[in-house]
Amino acid sequence: MTEENQTLPEFLLLGFSDLRALQGPLFWVVLLVYLLTLLGNSVIILLTQGSPALHSPMYFFLRHLSVVEVLYTTDIVPRTLVDLASPHPRAISFQSCATQMYVFIVLGITECCLLTAMAYDRYAAICRPLHYSTLMSWQACTAMVGISWFMGIITATTHSSLIFTLPFPSHPIIPHFLCDILPVLRLASAGKHRSEISVVTATVVFIMVPFSLIVTSYARILGAILAMASTQSRRKVFSTCSSHLLVVFLFFGTASITYIRPQAGSSVTMNRILSLFYTVVTPMLNPIIYTLRNKEVAGALWHMVKRQVSSP
User: Fold this and answer.
1) Do 240 and 234 meet the contact criterion of CB atoms below 8 Å apart?
2) pTM for the complete prediction?
């Protein structure tokens, strides 16, 4: 390892310091969204844990998805708020930057896999109802969640090992508000080729492949829906899938734009806005989508509220 890496240089996170007029309002917006994210996902966790009506594989996956969302935003937002409160860019240590990226990748990949498992659950429930209890047994669901976390850990370990063993300049400056993969990778002065190959491979495997599996599942679900004779049955089946579909397109859409689109000519400001959306806004929207568009979750929430109000 070079002498530059042996000194473990600090990274300077520029954050939004070049947009000082927006830092104050942005601080309060991000803080509010973060609090709503914690509240919304905590409610989903409590509902899916405590309501017997939500003790099914779909809500088992949803509970784990909400746990991931809470950890995901907590990995990024507190540090971002501190930076927004400062008028000048703040340094982040080499170890802290590596830790933030590692956790960020673990949770991002885990979410990809959980969303894919949820799509498979809908496929099994609608297209193979007679085999549903076997395909989606509690052992199978637990295994899917475990594999999701395992894939996240393996990917994060590989990426972090490749990226943070590269030589960095003495005073690296990251034009971002978090230690994301591509901004940090661009700072490395040599050996980027193998890390870029790793990033592209992981992007294809954990964005395009899961998304393709989800699209395939819903293509078969659509065929099953169209084969139903009753319009009411079609609406009922579609309503059970619409919430998950919205979350899928929010997550994979922003991830694809960020990591797959050509980086040449892309503006730093646009990159930060996209990252702010999928790291801060999307985790807040997920519980709202599931509460407003899912009658079972909305019903469980209403019963919980009535229970709390009527209790002495």
Assistant:
1) no
2) 0.88
